[in-house]
User: What shape does this take?
Amino acid sequence: YDWNRGGHGTVTMRRAITVSCNSCFYDMGFNLNEYDPFFLPETARQYGLGQPTGVQGVGENAGLIPDPDWKMASGAGGWVAGDAVNMAIGQGDVQVTPLQMARVFAAFANGGTLVTPRLIDRIGSGGGTPEETWPVEESGQIPLSEAHLEALRGALREVATQSYGTASHRFFGLPVPVAGKTGTAEAPPNDPHAWFAGYAPAEPYTLADGTVVTEPQIAVLVML
Assistant: This one.
């Protein structure tokens, strides 16, 4: 998909992410479905969606990424363009977990690598026992070129910094540079869930002791 030109020539994908423009995402989902109904679902699975993250020690739900085969097998009938349009904004039959999305945003921050979440980072030394650390386990790469990843990170940064960004009013004056994305998950007949996923620092940041942090250190997922 052309990140520099919207489907109708009206909005770039980067700006659509910053302002959370559903109509642009609808258009993208429709066009991708015309290209191949399996393309969008298969791409979503490359981000680790629709499957467990592999975290040990807690129960987790795999979520659901629907596709034409799944819909037919479920007895809900044939796949239609509206299914892809819904999927393009994470609605319809799509189900993802907060942990899955936190992992996706960690991949945006680290250059595209999906890692297996873990509950323990390290066990400190004590009683004559040396410190024990857990190695980072890589589990895949998200399907984005470096150019598209850079454009995406720019859009996520604008979400928190530009006047038209959907989360900028919450980060005004925060010294730590943040990048992220707002979202709404419908739960009819109840009220919708509000999401924010992001990472920090999104730009070089100087700590109180003068240390300059040049790479993101944390990914977060907040749901209300």
Q: What stands out?
A: Strands lie at 113-115, 122-123, 132-133, 138-141, 179-187, 190-200, 205-206, 212-213, 218-223. The helical segments are 13-19, 22-35, 39-46, 68-73, 81-87, 98-110, 146-161, 168-171.
